[in-house]
Amino acid sequence: MSFLRAADARDESGHLISELHGVKLVQILEYLVAAYGWPELDARLRMNCFAENPSIKSSLTFLRRTPWARTKVEQLYIKARSAEVQGRPRP
Question: Which InterPro entries does the protein's record reference (predicted)?
Answer without folding.
Answer: DNA-binding_VF530-like, SAP_dom_sf
